[in-house]
Amino acid sequence: MARMTAARALVESLRAQGVDTIFGIISSHTMEIFDALYDHQDAIRFISTRHEQAAAMMADGYARVTGKPGVCLTSTGPGAANSMGGLGEAYAASSPVLTITSSAEEQLYERGLGTMHETKNQLDMLETVTRHSVHVSRPEEAPERVREAFALFQERRQRPIAIEIPSDVQGQSAETAISGPVRRAAPAADPAAVEAAAEVLLAGRRVGVMAGTGVHRSGAGGALTRLAERLGAPVFTTANSKGAIAEDHPLSLGMYGGEYNFPPGGLEDPRQTFANSLDVLLVAGSSLSYFRAKSQGLRQPAQLIHLDIDAAPMDKWYETTVRLVGDAGTVLEQLNGALADRTGWDGAGWDGPARGHEEGFAAEVRAVRESIRAYKRQTLPNETRIMEAIRGATARDAVFVGDVGVCNHRGANYCLEIYEERSYLIPAWGGLGFGLPAAAGAKAGVPERQVICITGDGGFQFNIQELGTCVQYGLRPVVLVFNDDAWGLLRYYQKDRMGGRYIASDLENPDFRRLAMAYGACGVEAGSLPELVEALEQALAAETVTVIDVKTPEGFANFR
């Protein structure tokens, strides 16, 4: 044990848990923490954002792409409140973000005496977007609260955790012990349930898999792919789990569903038809929410095996045959082992979907893949062409970060193929402004990989100021701004559903190219698809963040 301030104990504890990057904004309420960080600049990089919402979103992007908890640091009151939108996104996406904030002095805490930045029930506010929120009253508590947070990230569904430390407590000293990194085994499922699930999977004649975000969070893409190959089972993913199995794999059927009442076209979706023909469905790492399943027309399968680290979502919308409560990666490996024991086949040498349980099922899977491809080309022809061109200019392991906009809802979600896990990051809560800061956070986490942000002109302007952060800290994502001078998705709704009665959906935008240059970034314009591809190729080799203002005056679907 050693005598140290709460602020120093906090920073030492973060370093002990392997934290190498923190996003946030300095404040008079956190000066003690920043003074402690001063002595650890060789190990912990602080990235100063321009807005606390962006800090939380950067921490989220960092966490999703690296698999490690992201950390953000804000001040009390307005700073903590500003972070709420970003924390809400991380909560909805089951992303491990640790947010550290200050509060009023301990003797004034929650007394309503009018101290600076005082917030009524700040911890209750944070509770709405976190799994767990705690207040530190004494300096010796700080290390234990950090250790507790990192243990929870490993043991339960990964959602934000908040630690609140009063500004005066940060500078108080006590005898404090800094423990080593938390190492907790990922929770496994009940072996009896695994055996029951294996029996159901082997007895099924038409077996499929629905992969959710939990596969990415546990780094379980390899285990998922081996299971699919072992069973010859096709795999759907939710939007946030694209890439859990490579989308050019013969067993990948791509993303299932889309948005409420937002199909790509008026034709029958072959994915929905095929999913509802399965007699056994294994759901891995998804809560089977109303938004992603029930509202998309997914019917109750005859046999449902639901694997999730949290039992709470099970049996809410669908009756479960076998519950597998545990970490997706751990349980998928348990299933792989149980199936190998029963079949004597370890999956080695697999070269095609040849192990379908129903005669002709493997050929049907191949046919469905072709029908899905044809469906997209018929209902989203230009969107498909745009995304294929972008995909062709980027590396196989490129990270794509989306925002809320028509370029994602009618573009990347449906038409952009993703080949690596943890390589497709989009808002789960549905808040605008996620794209740029999350892309910056992803680039901070994996600087050696290409990171491409796909956003609209409206969403881009929510956090456009983070171009300054990117330039200052050498973060080099490529930002594609599909610019139709409108809230394009809402304008599409007004055209499609409201008979062209347009109101409040037009935008008068600045010159994004010149604005990027004013920040010290690179700014270019593209008025056609060939110009976009050329600009993208140059931007991927640029020495700074690049904004490509993609002019789509006739809308995203008509960009050529």
Index terms:
560 residues, alpha/beta, Rossmann fold, 6-stranded parallel β-sheet
How would you classify the helix and strand content by structural class?
Answer: alpha/beta
CATH architecture of the largest domain: 3-Layer(aba) Sandwich
Gross morphology: globular
**Could you say what the CATH topology of the largest domain is called?**
Rossmann fold
Strand content: 15-25%
Q: End-to-end span in angstroms? A: 65 Å
Descriptive overview:
The protein has about 550 residues and is an alpha/beta fold. The protein folds into three domains: about 1-175, Thiamin diphosphate (ThDP)-binding fold, Pyr/PP domains (Rossmann fold, 3-Layer(aba) Sandwich), CATH 3.40.50; about 190-375, Rossmann fold (3-Layer(aba) Sandwich), CATH 3.40.50; about 380-560, Rossmann fold (3-Layer(aba) Sandwich). It is about 40% helix and about 15% strand. The protein has 22 helices and 20 strands. The strands form four sheets. The chain has a six-stranded parallel sheet, with helices on both faces. It has a six-stranded parallel sheet with strand order 11-10-9-12-13-14. The chain has a six-stranded parallel sheet with strand order 16-15-17-18-20-19, with helices on both faces. Helix 22 (about 530-540) links the parallel strand 19 and strand 20. Helix 11 (about 220-230) runs parallel beside helix 13 (about 330-345). It is globular, with a radius of gyration of 24 Å. The mean pLDDT is about 90.
